[in-house]
Every structure is written in structure tokens, then in C-alpha cells.
């Protein structure tokens, strides 16, 4: 007897890495072992020393194939088993361990856009749909495009056991969001990458592609982000830690911007519910700030913050790593843990 393991990994495409996957048939009962691939075809090696190693880091049921089949999220190593430069998970693993005592958790809102025939789903050929206004959380065939794919994707994530916590239609036609979390940094990032793979895979069967392009349509159309909601134990217990985290993010704002996804300047313009990439701000209920403190958090004097800056095409290993590094170090220094 045998089962199928779909090995998924992140390639070396620049500036934004892409997902790759291939299937290994394994004897029933065997754990998915280390495996390899041709790094010269993924921008991760040259032809002469082409072997790269896949190390399984997160395994879940495969909701597409069903049965005993599994999805296996991997990190990429050199043949000597040191992390490949494209492997951003290795650094996050160190940070997560270093600050595990602060119990950081994340909920990431992944926005994305469906495309068909070279244009966003719901856009007429050679023109534009009615301006934005009624598409966000809309209902009806004139406002909502691709719901059958969204529903299938949500069910696939649930069947895989991912911590998906909701979906909604977004401000631009064909644009949607799903949320993963709140769970720890490695968990949210591993699961977000698998959820992205499932999105592409489910949409494939409908002849539709999904893109994480942060600004898929130029002009007066919303971009796509990955708002990252974050808390530590201290933030969940008191307001001083909430404010200290917001201030700490301001101290390293430009380092964060650099790690929040390619072409972030095209999305963080100060328009369309964003703050300009060059200026850091935070505020209660403020969807025009870099970081928002939800009103409930101010009322309760504890909870979490929302970093609204990360792009849809960000690497969640990098984003959560930056937030843990900046905020947890600051909370520790301020004696707030
Ligand atoms: P928005 O109003 O910004 O659209 P969403 O409902 O889409 O908000 O997303 C809010 C996210 O915040 C969810 O992913 C949820 O898991 C996450 N979240 C809730 N509480 C916490 C917390 N204490 N720490 C971190 N994330 C949290
Ligand atoms: Mn949301
Ligand atoms: Mn949104
Ligand atoms: Mn949000």
C-alpha cells in the first residue's frame, strides 16, 4: 500500500519568490523523508551543482487528493544541510525560540486577486467595471466574482486542518481576503504558505489564476495587502505593552518596509486605506495609519495591534520575524514582560 505526499517549497525567484511542488509516492506508514530537487530550474543553484535538499517542516492532510495523502511544506537546504539563502524560515525559527517566553501570536489577512483572460475576474474586456463602492463584502452576481473558488478554498483549508479564521470579498472586483490565525509565528507562516498553495491549486481547476500582486490595477483601485495582527502575552494583558510595541515599530520603520514585500511603494501611497510608506504612524481605529489599535483594544486596555503595511506578496517568515525581533526585544528592554 502507498500514499502520495505533495512536497511544497519556496523557490529563489526575485524579487518575489514563488511556490513549487512535486509528488512523492511513499509506502503506507513511512514518514515523508528529506528529498531533493533541481535548484538550477528554480533560481536556487547553478547547473553544475544543482542539487538542493527539501526538509519537511509541516505536514497536513491533502484536501485535494483526500484519503491518506498529505501536503508537506518544506524548507530548502544545501546538500551539507545548512539553510539555503532563499530559506527565510531558518532565521524565524531562531527568533521564535529566542522569544518563546513572550508567547507571540499572529493573525494574517491575506488579500489576493483572481485573474482570467489577462484581467481581474469581473472586469469587462477592454474596459473597467463600475467604480469601487459596493464590492467589499458584497452579494449578487453584479458585485461578486469567484465565490465558488473562494468557498472551495476555504473548505480545503479547513480539511487540511489550517487555522483559517474567515474570508471576505474585497474593495476591488475579483479581489478577496482570507485570514489565518491567531497562532505562533512559525505556525502562521507555514500555514499561510500552504493556504496560498491551496488557493492556486483550487483556482487552477476553474481555469482561474490568483495573484498576490500588491497593486494589480493601477489608478483608483485598491491594492492587496497582508495586514498582520500581532500580540504577545504582555500585550494581551496590558496597554503599556501595546503602546511600547507601536513605538518600537516606529523606531525601525524603514527596515520593516524593506521586508514587507516588493513594490510596497506602489501600494502604500497614502490613498486607498494606506499610510505612505515613508512615514510611520499609529492610531486607534485608524485605517489610514501604518499600525492600527482596534477600538476594542483601547476600550479593554489590552489585546493586539494590526500592522497594515505588509504587502499581499510578502514573505510571512520575514514579516513575523521582523515583528517578533522588534517588538519582543523592546518589551524585554522596557521590562514589560
Ligand atoms: P479587519 O477588521 O482588519 O479586516 P480581520 O477580521 O480580517 O480584521 O482580521 C483580524 C485578525 O486578527 C484575525 O486574523 C485574527 O485571528 C487576528 N487576531 C485576533 N486577536 C488577536 C490577537 N490577540 N493576537 C494576534 N492576532 C489576533
Ligand atoms: Mn480583514
Ligand atoms: Mn482586507
Ligand atoms: Mn485588516
TrEMBL record:
GO terms for biological process: glutamine biosynthetic process. Residues 3-81 form the GS beta-grasp domain. It catalyses: L-glutamate + NH4(+) + ATP = L-glutamine + ADP + phosphate + H(+). Its EC number is 6.3.1.2. Coiled coil: none annotated. GO terms for cellular component: cytoplasm. GO terms for molecular function: ATP binding; glutamine synthetase activity. Pfam families: Gln-synt_C (PF00120), Gln-synt_N (PF03951). Keywords: ATP-binding, Ligase, Nucleotide-binding. It is an enzyme of class 6 (ligase). Residues 88-337 form the GS catalytic domain. Homooctamer and homotetramer. Catalyzes the ATP-dependent biosynthesis of glutamine from glutamate and ammonia. Belongs to the glutamine synthetase family. This is Glutamine synthetase.
Amino acid at each position: 500500500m502507498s500514499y502520495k505526499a505533495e512536497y511544497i517549497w519556496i523557490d529563489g525567484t526575485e524579487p518575489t519568490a514563488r511556490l513549487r511542488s512535486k509528488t512523492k509516492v511513499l509506502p503506507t506508514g513511512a514518514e515523508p523523508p528529506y528529498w531533493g530537487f533541481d535548484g538550477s530550474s528554480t533560481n536556487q543553484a547553478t547547473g553544475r551543482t544543482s542539487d538542493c535538499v527539501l526538509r519537511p517542516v509541516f505536514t497536513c492532510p491533502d484536501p485535494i487528493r483526500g484519503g491518506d495523502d498529505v501536503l508537506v511544506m518544506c524548507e530548502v537546504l544545501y546538500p551539507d544541510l545548512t539553510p539555503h539563502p532563499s530559506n527565510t524560515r531558518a532565521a524565524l525559527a531562531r527568533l521564535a525560540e529566542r522569544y518563546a517566553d513572550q508567547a507571540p501570536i499572529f493573525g494574517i489577512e491575506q488579500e489576493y486577486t483572481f485573474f482570467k483572460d489577462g484581467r481581474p475576474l469581473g472586469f469587462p474586456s477592454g474596459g473597467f467595471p463600475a467604480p469601487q463602492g459596493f464590492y467589499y463584502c458584497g452579494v449578487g452576481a453584479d458585485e461578486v466574482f469567484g465565490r465558488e473558488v473562494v468557498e472551495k478554498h476555504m473548505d480545503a483549508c479547513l480539511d487540511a486542518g489550517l487555522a483559517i479564521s474567515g474570508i471576505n470579498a474585497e474593495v476591488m472586483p475579483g479581489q478577496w481576503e482570507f485570514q489565518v490565525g491567531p497562532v505562533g509565528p512559525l505556525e502562521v507562516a507555514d500555514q499561510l504558505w500552504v493556504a496560498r498553495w491551496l488557493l492556486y491549486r483550487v483556482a487552477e481547476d476553474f481555469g482561474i489564476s490568483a495573484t498576490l500582486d500588491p497593486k494589480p490595477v493601477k489608478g483608483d483601485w485598491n491594492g492587496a495587502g497582508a495586514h498582520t495582527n500581532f500580540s504577545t502575552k504582555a500585550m494581551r494583558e496590558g496597554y503599556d505593552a501595546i503602546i511600547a510595541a507601536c513605538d518600537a515599530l516606529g523606531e525601525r520603520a524603514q527596515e520593516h518596509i524593506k521586508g514587507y514585500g516588493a513594490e510596497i511603494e506602489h501600494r502604500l501611497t497614502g490613498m486607498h486605506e494606506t499610510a505612505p510608506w515613508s512615514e510611520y504612524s499609529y492610531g486607534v481605529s485608524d485605517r489610514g495609519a501604518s499600525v492600527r489599535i482596534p477600538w476594542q483594544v483601547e476600550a479593554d486596555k489590552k489585546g493586539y495591534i494590526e500592522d497594515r503595511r505588509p504587502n499581499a506578496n510578502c514573505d510571512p517568515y520575514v514579516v513575523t520575524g521582523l515583528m517578533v525581533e522588534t517588538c519582543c526585544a523592546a518589551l524585554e528592554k522596557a521590562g514589560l514582560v
